[in-house]
Amino acid sequence: MLKSFFHTGFIVKDIEKSIDFYSSVFGLSLAGRAERTGEFAETLLGYTGVHVQNAFLDLGDGHQLELIQYMTPTGSKANFEKNDVGASHIAFLVNDIDSFYANAKEKGLKPVNSPASLHDENGTLLRKALYAQDPDGNWIELVELF
Questions:
Q1: Using an 8 Å Cβ cutoff, are 138 and 66 in contact?
Q2: Of 5, 77, 119, 131, which is the most buried if we count CB atoms within 10 A?
């Protein structure tokens, strides 16, 4: 039986640059780091001789973002589009999406478009949201609820 969500994982090319990106753009804090090799990593990931570096970042709410850099074997860039089967994303709630959008673009966030607004049938603003990518192409959704 499932107990709760634990973490979301993204594969990255350079873990140090990714830690810096998620810390400076999203304000995530580094919660821990690990380096995995040996039997556990080989059994878990299914690669003989695997070597990965992991970093766990969070906002203190229990859910963590795990950044994973494969040292061995290295992978290739997948270039998933939002609508590709197998593509995934992580969504963050923000307080002021318009300000966040303006500031985050300057720090390397690659938005698809400016924030989109969703209204109900009476014209009341329900939410604003946008899709973007991190420097490695991982998909991120930002949402402001009203």
A1: no
A2: 131
- Domains defined along the chain, listed by start: 7-72 (3.10.180.10), 89-145 (3.10.180.10)
The string of pLDDT tens digits covering residues 97-127 is 999 999 998 888 999 999 999 999 999 999 9
Q: Is the distance from CB of 67 to CB of 15 less than 8 angstroms?
A: yes
Give, in order, the Cα–Cα distances in Å from 77 to each of 12, 22, 99, 137, 138. 9, 19, 31, 8, 10
Provide the H-helix boundaries in 4-113: 15-26, 38-45, 97-106
Least Cα distance to 70 among 109, 89, 92, 44 occurs for: 44
Record the tokens describing residue 119, joined without a space: 């209204």
What is d(CA 100, CA 26) in angstroms, rounded to the nearest whole number? 9
Cα 85 versus chain centre, distance: 18
Which tens digits make up the pLDDT trace of 59-95? Answer: 988 899 999 999 999 988 888 888 888 889 999 999 9
- Pairwise CA distance, residues 106 & 88, whole Å: 24
